[in-house]
């Protein structure tokens, strides 16, 4: 029986890994330019920690199990909660804390385009800054990281949960049902307006206000909220959004990348105010490529001191798909590297010594080990995309001059090993 990979997972072959590595290195570069340091957390955590404030829907998506001692553990479904645990365990860490991560996570959900059960997240957490300029730094870092790897035609859709809760309360949703109502609004893009209307009716919204609420969510005009009785918390949320927009425009010059979107609420219950998602023109079917927000209660909830915190995460697989959709992801690495071919088995060790010397000089080199004929070996090397083939036989060993074939130009010359290394390194 031939085994297949588990549903919702992917294998990445060398060329795909090279694409992903280029993207991840670009993200890492920007994270570190902003002064963030890398952290790595365990693949699994205590289940109690993971469900602390994840939300009912996410709880159902956690891969969990009991170990041999009967402890309930779960695979991490995102990185914010494990990082909150790190900070709670180490209250003396100097503030503010700037952490970044690039790691896989797991969620048991229905696989579809851009949504796997095992996927990677690259993100940052800024802990210890309560003011809106902390949020602005993280949003600016996000925009510049996406620009660095070549993404274009995208917007960061921003909202404040306090505004969303104020609007839902105004529409008649009772306080105990606000969480369910937020989760319904979060599905507006995926499930459509009729689903949200019906769900809000079920949760107790006043029929006469549902259409007005849907209109406000669609148009996302902050100015019209001033005339509505949304409560003091919602007014603070509006003020924070205005300050964020001003900071991103005046401090970072990134206002063109930001859009207020009152329908964005995010699916995780630990967010307390600012929330946002990145949407890419031409790749709407992927969903959001990145998202984040402020979570001022989470660290205290998991046993640490009260600490304000804000952060974001990029879905690596979705980002790669979006880059490919925009033609910004190069498939094919071009010809490079050297294959060293012994003319027969007698010169295999000589070929190995040549390859080892090339490697010591920083040149990628492969030795032809199959024993096939020279013409067949050259044809195979051409198909595999090597730039140079170095042929090693009696004449080469005696003279110290290697026969070098440029497989792109299909030209041949004889040169010392030092020259071969110089050519291949260009």
Give a quick summary of the entry.
With 426 residues, the chain is α+β, with helices and mostly antiparallel strands.
Write a structural description.
This protein is of the alpha+beta class and 426 residues long. The chain has 2 domains: 312 residues, Bira Bifunctional Protein, Domain 2 (BirA Bifunctional Protein, domain 2, 2-Layer Sandwich); 88 residues, 3-Layer(aba) Sandwich (Rossmann fold), CATH 3.40.50. It contains 17 helices and 16 strands. Strands 1-5-6-11-10-9-7-8 form an 8-stranded mixed beta sheet. The chain has a 5-stranded mixed beta sheet with strand order 13-12-14-15-16, sandwiched between helices. Strand 12, helix 14 and strand 13 form a beta-alpha-beta unit. The two termini are 47 Å apart. 39% of the residues are buried. The model has no long low-confidence stretch (mean pLDDT 92).
Number of strands: 16
User: For this structure, what is the CATH class of the largest domain?
Assistant: Alpha Beta
Which descriptor suits the 3D outline? Answer: elongated
Let me know the CATH homologous superfamily of the largest domain: Bira Bifunctional Protein, Domain 2
Q: Could you say which structural class the secondary elements and strand pairing correspond to?
A: alpha+beta
How can the largest sheet be summarized? 8 strands, mixed
DSSP strand content: 15-25%
Number of helices: 17
Tell me, rounded to a whole number, the average pLDDT: 92
Estimate percent helicity.
40-55%
Under the CATH scheme, the architecture of the largest domain is 2-Layer Sandwich
Spatial order of the strands forming the largest sheet? 1-5-6-11-10-9-7-8
Query: At the third CATH level, what is the topology name of the largest domain?
Result: BirA Bifunctional Protein, domain 2
* Computed Rg: 28 Å
Q: How many angstroms separate the termini?
A: 47 Å
* Count of the domains: 2
Low-confidence blocks of residues: none
């Amino acid at each position: 029986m031939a085994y297949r990979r588990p549903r919702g997972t992917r294998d990445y072959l060398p060329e795909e890994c090279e694409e992903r590595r280029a993207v991840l290195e670009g993200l890492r570069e920007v994270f570190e330019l902003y002064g963030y340091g890398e952290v790595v957390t365990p693949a699994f955590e205590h289940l109690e920690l993971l469900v602390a404030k994840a939300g009912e829907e996410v709880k159902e998506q956690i891969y969990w199990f009991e170990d041999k001692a009967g402890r309930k553990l779960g695979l991490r479904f995102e990185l914010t909660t494990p990082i909150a645990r790190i900070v709670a365990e180490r209250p003396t860490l100097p503030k503010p804390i700037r952490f970044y991560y690039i790691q896989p996570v797991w969620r048991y959900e229905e696989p579809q385009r851009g949504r796997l059960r095992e996927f990677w997240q690259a993100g940052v957490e800024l802990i210890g800054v309560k003011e809106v300029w902390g949020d602005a730094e993280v949003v600016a870092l996000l925009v510049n990281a996406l620009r660095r790897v070549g993404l274009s035609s995208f917007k960061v859709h921003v909202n404040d949960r306090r505004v969303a809760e104020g609007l839902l309360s105004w529409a008649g949703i009772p306080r105990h049902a606000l969480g369910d109502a937020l989760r319904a609004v979060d599905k507006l893009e995926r499930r459509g307006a009729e689903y949200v209307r019906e769900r809000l009716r079920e949760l107790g919204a006043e029929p006469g206000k549902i259409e007005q609420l849907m209109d406000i969510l669609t148009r996302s005009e902050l100015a019209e909220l001033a005339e509505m009785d949304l409560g003091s918390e919602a007014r603070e949320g509006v003020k924070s959004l205005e300050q964020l927009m001003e900071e991103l425009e005046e401090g970072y010059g990134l206002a063109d990348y930001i859009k207020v979107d009152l329908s964005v609420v995010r699916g995780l219950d630990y967010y307390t105010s600012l929330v946002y998602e990145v949407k890419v023109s031409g790749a709407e079917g992927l969903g959001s490529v990145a998202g984040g927000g402020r979570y001022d209660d989470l660290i205290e909830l998991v046993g640490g001191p009260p600490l304000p915190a804000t952060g974001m995460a990029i879905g690596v697989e979705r980002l790669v798909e979006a880059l490919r959709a925009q033609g910004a992801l190069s498939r094919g690495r071009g010809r490079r590297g050297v294959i060293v071919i012994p003319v027969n088995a007698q010169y295999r060790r000589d070929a190995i010594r040549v390859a080892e010397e090339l490697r010591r000089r920083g040149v990628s080199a492969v030795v032809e080990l199959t024993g096939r004929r020279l013409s067949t070996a050259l044809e195979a090397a051409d198909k595999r995309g090597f730039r140079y083939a170095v042929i090693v036989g009696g004449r080469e060993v005696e003279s110290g001059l290697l026969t070098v074939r440029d497989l792109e130009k299909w030209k041949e010359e004889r040169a010392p090993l030092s020259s071969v290394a110089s050519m291949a390194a260009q």
